Amino acid sequence: MGISAIDVKKLRTLTNAGMMDCKRALMESQGDFQKAGSLLKERGQSKADSKSGRIAAQGIVSIEIEELKHLALVLEINCETDFAAKDDQFVEFSNQISNLLVNEKIENIDQLLNSSISGFERVEDFRKSVVAKLGENITIRRFARIFYQGTLGSYIHGNKIAALVDLDIDDKDLAKNLAMQVAASKPQYIDQTDIPKEIIDGESRILRSHAEQEGKPKEIIEKIVTGKLNKYLNEITLLGQEYIKDSDLNISQLLKKSNATVNLFVRYEVGEGIEQKDKNFADEVKEQVDASK
User: Fold this and answer.
1) What is the pLDDT of residues 231-249, one digit of tens each?
2) Are 11 and 33 in contact (CB under 8 A)?
3) What is the 3-state secondary structure (H, E, C) of the chain?
4) What per-residue string of b and e applies to 235-259 under the rule 16 or more CB within 10 Å gives b?
5) Are 155 and 162 in contact (CB under 8 A)?
6) pTM of the model
7) How far apart are CA 235 and CA 246, in angstroms?
8) For the chain, what is the largest distance between any 2 Cα atoms, rounded to a whole number of angstroms?
9) CA-to-CA distance for 72 and 102, rounded, in angstroms?
10) Mind listing the pLDDT tens digit for each residue in 138-173?
């Protein structure tokens, strides 16, 4: 039977599927819109399932702030390529997930995926529909809902790095500068008292082993270990880091000038810690050729 362009457009409006997918579904269902919609849903589910094991290390991070609630949300959603991360459908998906997390008390990813969202029974159904449209695996990797106590500083760098800092005094400029510091310098802890003992002990053992292997005299090994360990601990703590806007100050000194304390900070970087396969262009071309045989 003939399928009109008007019918194809109508089904596309209802499902947001591709034009050719809509046309094929209408032809197979003899023009029955309900059956065609079911076919598209089944195929979208199949596409999403087939892509679920693929590495998604690109994407975006976002920050949403509700000042009346003293609530800040930081969110990371991943896809496979930077191209898809800029797609309007991917950005809209991220925005809707962010809004849901701000307005609902959702504690973890499993709870989020099973939560209802406008237009879908579950967030997981929404995710799979976007996977089917974009042709890439999409994962909601992590989020943090922060109820801040003081002045919140936030900073986003190119939708790839997001940082939040909760400062105990009313100084928005300082809070913003500290968020930029966190984004740029990757601290893991506020100060050295927050570092687990096993991490300090482990680093100390490594430094001592290196000094011994280099044949350093025993009487100076402890001085070498102490110096290098302190440098390392300063690098991974916010208060020990050199201030990015004034190399004559570290963050501890900067805070003392304002009699300020950092309550907490959060830093998300897209794809951080995700193991990616090393591929070159020739390998990718060969993969595509092999897949087409």
Assistant:
1) 999 999 999 999 999 999 9
2) yes
3) CCCCHHHHHHHHHHHCCCHHHHHHHHHHCCCCHHHHHHHHHHHHHHHHHHHCCCCCCEEEEEEEEECCCCEEEEEEEEECCHHHHCCHHHHHHHHHHHHHHHHCCCCCHHHHHCCCECCECCHHHHHHHHHHHHCCCCEEEEEEEEECCCEEEEEEECCCEEEEEEECCCCHHHHHHHHHHHHHHCCCECCHHHCCHHHHHHHHHHHHHHHHHCCCCHHHHHHHHHHHHHHHHHHHECCCCEECCEEEEEHHHHHHHHCCCEEEEEEEECCCCCCCCCCCHHHHHHHHHHHHC
4) ebbbbbbebeeeeeebbeebbeeee
5) yes
6) 0.76
7) 16
8) 91
9) 8
10) 999 999 999 999 999 999 999 999 999 999 999 999
- CA–CA gap between residue 40 and residue 125 (Å, rounded): 13
